[in-house]
Structures are given as structure tokens and as C-alpha cells.
Design goal:
347 residues, Rossmann fold, six-stranded parallel β-sheet, five-stranded mixed β-sheet, 16% strand, globular
Length: 347
Amino acid sequence: MSALDTFGEQNFEQLSVRRLDGGFASIVAVHDTTLGPALGGVRIRKCATDDLAAADALRLARAMTFKAALAGLPLGGGKSVINADPRDDKTVEMLEAHGRHVAAFDGRYIPGADMGTGPADLEVIGRHAPRVSSDGRDPSPYTARGVVMSMETVANRLGSNGIGHRGLDGLRVAVQGIGNVGRGIVELLTARGAQVLVADPDPERVASAVADHGATATALDTVLLSDVDVVCPAGPGLVVTEEVAGRLRASAVVGAANNMFAGPGVGATLAARGVAYVPDFVSNAGGLISCAAEINDEADFVDRVDRIGVVVDEILHHAAVTRSDPESAAMALAHRRIDAARQDVSG
């Protein structure tokens, strides 16, 4: 399915593409602004085609809509992607041009940090965009915190059902991807007594996680099939395929990666095998909560990040009671809030 097909079928509000100097595509997608302006990160990532980069922006923007709804935030879902290599291609001129593109949305899309960008980059984008987040605070530690809170909830539920044990102490976790968020997850887990396997394309990141936090290195191509309690995709998305889901040895999947499932049937495959999972747009919402607090000048927000664990418990309970999968349960709760907001506006 092309990006334009996805745009039409999933009721997106806006998709805009601009060609930057050097031939790089600047892509901005807004999915839904029922609850408020669309907030989502700026991702700089090299894709094989601009259509694939646009499809990535659309998938991510849609997930942000449901992430904001479940986090109880007055925000919608958006995302932007620059189809470029963040190490070799990123320049101040590129970021400023992207900022001018964002400015054309007149505040309907608020950019933040994502893969390939950080606070300094958002400061540059903010020279032209009317409003940005993440220019004063890195959201990565709060994304990591929410993921670990989600893992703790899942571990407690599994332990109460006689699978594994309760809590994080002694929990065996495999983390795929040791970037800003993945490293934060490893740090928090090992500090709580978890046994952590790590894998990343960058050997320096792996070596640092091993030396600084006592993690154990494992192979990147098999990390998700490790004999552990929980696997945690924390890099690029679309890594949990049907094949991986069918061969998984872990009891649960709790990820930081956006769109970690490679297809719509993956969740059903996991559920059929009795593998618990938390939808990524729930577990990784801590970064969005941080960004929302930043743009609203709120200093006291960490308790809302910690409440992600409560939301996870509610979703897993709802899924069990209704005999549905966790993603369906989460989507139902999110749609309920969005639909209620639409009724308030129309009524």
C-alpha cells in the first residue's frame, strides 16, 4: 500500500512533502487534532524511497493520536520525517528548512525530538516553527521510565499468574537498540536488579552498556529470540514479524520502538501463543508526556509518566475480561476518549 493509499484509508487530516536542498524530502503528517494540536517528533532517518519515508511518518502520526488519548493529554497525533542520514546529511540549513515547512502548519503540528534529532536540533527548527518541544529537555529518559513502569506491571501480572516472578528484581530482559531510550531502559532495569541482554548495530553502544551497567551483549539478529522473560524492541520499528512472533521464547513483549509490530496479525499471533504484550503507543508514552509538560511550562509531571503502569494494567485487565488482544483493548479506550471529544464539539 502506498503512502497516499494509507493517507486516504485511515482518515488523516494532512500530509505535506517538500523537497529540501540536496534532494532530501521533508515530510509532515497530521493524523487527528480532535483533542488538540498534533505533537510528534522529527525523525531523521534514511529510507530507500520517499514513499517509504512518508509511510513511516503516517504510521507514527497515527500512533501518536492514540498515545495522547490514552495518556489523557489534550493533544493530537502528528510526526515528521526527513529522509536523510542523520550522521552524514544533517545540517543547520536542513533543520531550518524543515522548520519553515513546519511553520506552514501554523501551530497545528508541534515538533519534538525523535530518532536522529535532539534538543539542539529542535532549537534550530524553533527559529522558524511557532512552537516546538524538546528544545529545553530531552524526552528520552521519560520514555525509558514509562517503558520500565510497563515492564513492572507486566511482570507483576505474570507473576501473579504463576509465570515467572513478580517485580523487576531478577527479571530477564533482552533490549534491542541502545540509543538514548534503550540505554535509559538498561540503566533503570539494572539498577532494579534485572538481568539485561543488549544488542545494537553500534558496537560502541553495546560496549558502553556492558561496562557502565553490567549488561550482557548478545547477537543483534537473534536478540528478540533470546530465552528471557521480556523482550524490548527499542530501535527502529517493524521488527516483530510474524516469524519472530511465532518463534518468540519470552513471556512478554514490552517495547520502546514505535510501530514495533511488522503487520496487523502479529498481536493476534502473540495472543494465540499466550505471550503478553503492551501496545507500544502505551508503553512509550513517557516522552510525549514530557514534551506536553514542556510546552505547557509544567515542572511536576513525573507522576503522570509513572501512571503509565496503571494504564497498562487497565488495558491488560480489559483485554482479559473482553477476551480481546491488548491492542484492541487499548484502541477501544482511545477511540472512546476521541469520540467523546467530538461529541462535545458537535453538541
